[in-house]
Each structure stands twice: as C-alpha cells, then as structure tokens.
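Example with several molecule types.
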Amino acid sequence: MIRIDNLTKCFGPAKILNGIHASINKGECIAIIGPSGAGKSVFLRSMALLEKPDSGTILINGKDITAKDTDINKVREKMGLVAQGFNLFSHLNVMNNITLAPIQVRKQTKAQAEAHAMELLALVGLEEKAYAMPSELSGGQQQRIAIARCLAMDPDIILFDEPTSALDPVMTREVLSIIRKLSGRGITLVIVTHEMDFARETADRVFYLDEGTVYEEGKPADLFKNPVREKTRAFVKTLETLRFTITSKSYDLVAMNARIDWFCRLHGLDSRHNYRIQLAVEELIQEIFLHCFNAINPDLDLTVEHFSVNNEIVLIFKYRWELFNPFDQQAGHQDNLGMTLVTGMARSFDFEYSDGINKLIIKL
Amino acid sequence: MLNEPEIIPMDFLEKIASSFYNNLIAGDAYLVVMKGMLTTVMLSLLALLFGTILGAVFCGTRLSGRKFLEVPVRIITTMLLGSPVTLLLMLLYYVVFANSRTDALIIAILAFTLHTGAHVSEIMRSALGVLSRREWEASRMLGFSELAAFRHITLPQAWKIAKPVYQNTIVNLIQWTSVVGYVTITDLTRTLNNVGSRTGDPFFALFFGILIYMGLSWMVHGLFSIRGKRGVA
Ligand SMILES: Nc1ncnc2c1ncn2[C@@H]1O[C@H](COP(=O)(O)OP(=O)(O)OP(=O)(O)O)[C@@H](O)[C@H]1O
Ligand SMILES: [Mg+2]
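Resulting structure tokens for the full complex:
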C-alpha cells in the first residue's frame, strides 16, 4: 500500500535520510523507533510531504506522491498526521476543530459533520468536551481531540510523531489506548514512539531507524528479543537496562536523575516509581561513599532494570571494596533517615560478596 | 431681590442657547458642519480602504522573502512610520503635486493612504508573526489548500490579534485627518474653525467639534464590537 524507495533528505551538509526503503501494507501498524536525532520525524514529515524529499519515491496505492502532477491536498485528505504538540486550532472549539475540514474540504453538511464528530468524540471518550476550547483541555485530552480531528476525514493512513512524549504517564495511557483501538480497523498506522511497551504489544512490525536508513525491521518479538545488527542490539540493550559507572565522588547527580526520568518514561513508570528510584540510588551511593573508597576514587557500577510482568524495578550496585552491606543491621546506622526510607520502600534486598566485589540487589 | 441668585443661571443658560444658535443654527451653519463632517468621514474611509489594501501589499512583499522588493518597502514603511503625516501631506501638496492641478482631496487621500498603509502593514506583520506554524501544518495535513488554510486558520486568528490595534488605527486616522485644513480642504475641523471665527465665539464650535470626533470614535468601536459578537455566535 505504501512503498518507499531510496528516499533521501539533506539539511545543508547533513544527510538525514540516506536511502530509506520500506513497504507498509494496508491496515498495518508500524512503530518507528530509534535514537534521538536519527531522523524519525523527518522521515514521517517526508511521507506527508511536509519536507520535500531530495530524491526517492513514495508510492501510495501505486501512485508516486512525489511526482510533480500529484495534488498533495487530495493525498493529505486521506493521510492524517498527529504530532507531538497536538496543534489544535486555538481559535475554534473542539467541535469546530473536528468539523472544519469535513465541512470545508470534503463539503459535508454541518449536521453530517457534527454527527460524525460526536461519534468520534465518543470513541475518544470526550463527548462532554464538545464545546470546550482547546486551552481548557489537558494535554492528553487535546491529543485525543487531535486524533478525533484526524479521524473525521476518514483517513486511510495516520502518521503519529511521538504522540505521547509531551504527556505524563496517565495521559500517555489514555492516548495509547485510543491508538490501540484504531489498529485493526483497516487504517494504516505509522507511529514514531519512545513507548517501547506500546511498540512491543501493538505494532505489527517495528522499524529501527539509524544511519538515515531503516537499519533493521521485524516483528516486535524478534526485533526486541533477537536484534540482528549491531546498532539495533546496542539500542535494545539501553532500553532494557540503565547502566551507570561512577568513578568520582563528585559524579553528575543531575544527569543521572535525568537518565532515570527518561528510563521511567520509556517503561511507562509513573512519577512515584521515578521518585523512588532516584531516592534509592542517591541514598545508597551516599551510604556506600560514606563507608568505602575513603581516600581513593570510587569504582561503582549501577544498573536499573524494569520487569513489566510484575512491574518490578531492580537496582544492582556493584562495588569493589571490603565487605560492606548498607542494609546490615550490625553496621548500626538504622538511625539514618534516608536509609530507613529506602529500607521501607524496598520489596526485598539481596547481598553477595565474592572476589572482593560487593553486589547489592534491591527490588522496588 | 430674593430671586437674585436665580438670575445668574438664567443668564448663563441664555448665553449658551444664543451661542448654540449663533454657531450652529444661524445661516444654516449646521449644514456646513455636516458637510465638513462628510468630508472627514469620506476622507477617512477612503484612506482606510486604500491604506488597508496597501498595507496588505506592503506586508505581502515584506514576507515574500524577495530582497529586492523587501528592502525598498522596508525603507518606505520606516520613513512613513517615523514622520508626522502632516509633513507628508504638505510635502505632497506643496512639492510633489505643486505644479499639477490635482485636487487637494485626492492628495490628502494619497497621504493618508500611505500613512495608514504603513501602519496596517506593521499590524499585519506582527499579527501573522504570532501565528503558529504548527497549526498551519495541521490544517494542510487535513487537506486544506494554502488559500483555504489562510482563510480558515490564519485570517481568523490574525484578525483576533490585530483587531484592537486596527481599531485604534482607524480612530487615530480620523483624528489625524483634522490637519487637512492646511491644504485648503474644508473638513470638519476647518469648518468648525470657520464657524468659530465668524461668530467670534470659538469655544462653543470647537467644543462641539470634540463631541463629534468622540462620536465618530465611539461609532468605530461600536461597529467593531458588533462584528466581534457576530463572530463568536
Ligand atoms: N528543518 C530542519 N532544518 C535543519 N535540520 C533539521 C530540520 N529538521 C530536522 N533537522 C535535523 O535532522 C536531524 C533529525 O531530526 P529528527 O527530528 O527527524 O530526529 P528524530 O529522530 O525525530 O529525533 P527525536 O527522537 O529527538 O524526535 C536532527 O539532527 C535535526 O537537527
Ligand atoms: Mg522527532
């Protein structure tokens, strides 16, 4: 249904898309993943011709939309885009946002368009907001309206560019559940996302974008479990576990917390989990520094893992020093408030010592 | 004798009445005033109409991204914005059209058109500058042509931003046209001035003039609020 051949796009000297090949079947749900700056947005925008490709072809139902004689407005009537920033028309209420294009572009009657809009509002669960202004809605609600507005044109294809990355986890779930409803309705969905669980569960195929190409593609189970190529492997690994190596007592706590934030977003963990991880990591590092590495630079490894099966977070600290277990009652620092908090919120701890390496495993 | 305090107000009211009569009724002065007002209104309306069109053209060229058009327009608008319209009017009347038989009114319309055009161009530019490129893209992605997107998305939003400033521009324009007496046009101000000097009692005529100008301003505001309400409904 969509066939993309040798698509390239440069910005000045920077070659962002470097020969993209892809084919997408009708009704398929494709998740596009990849590192930041890989060109995922540029790829999506090129498919919508919001960026003009330098070369290559985009065939939709056998018709090349990059050809000069294509009426791009006609193409876009059947191809929707939902962007990160919602972009509702700020001067129109929800109903008019949804009905404007059906009335003006598809020449539906007002009654027809409004009836359809009410159905779509029911689909996205926002019937009671039909006459609200966009500014009165939460981000998640605005995004659901943006999806409804897109659906009002009965598109064959909807492109999503990180539809949830401006939203908190609760709103993210709302929006993702709507997108899930759309898959399997015959609409072709192409979704750039950082929500890996969503990609795993909902997508029919996943494209991993890197080096300006579709570096690897496959069914989510294969691509996430057994990535074939090197960069995909590295990427998938960073998704599963967050890893820090700390070699200085003045390590960058802010940067570390930022990465924990990112990790939590990626795994759909809410702010409570986020806070707990940050607290536990900071307290334990402090505790370890207090008792180990007195005069020398530390040598400490930390990994954070998330298991979605039971929503368990596992922190593993490894440090080369004499035996020291921060949770050991004998050590006599139960009066430390931070440690008391960490002890209180942990599901379990494990401690091993072998070959001069302390290994502390905490489950949250 | 006890009535004395009442005599003064009676006297005062009589004075006002006779002043009113002398200034505005006697010799059909009100007709002359009406005629002057008509000149002012017509001059303002035409300058507004042409000025708005010119402003759109200026704005269009400035946003076109073509340097050879953009730079001259920028210079012209900067000069127009930076100088009193009275000087522009006199320049056109006494220098540019000095030897032609062009009607003073036409010259005045030209001067105020240029002046308004420069202002409107700036208003449009700042209103368009605030608009979101993303909403534009969103509308294009729904299948709107450029023209339709402009009409349904850009224009209503720009209008909302520009409206209060545009309204003020109109009021200012009406007031600024009061200088056309300098170039022999008998507009409202000039008329009232004439009346005042004829009767030797200018206060009343000029005060009345202020009321008329205020009335015109209120009419402008009134028209805009009607349109605004209709827009929402
Ligand atoms: N209009 C533009 N002009 C110049 N450079 C651009 C433009 N749009 C994108 N780029 C560059 O292209 C590269 C890819 O950008 P793109 O937004 O597609 O990345 P991405 O994969 O979507 O990343 P993210 O996950 O952060 O959204 C970036 O280096 C960006 O700076
Ligand atoms: Mg992007």
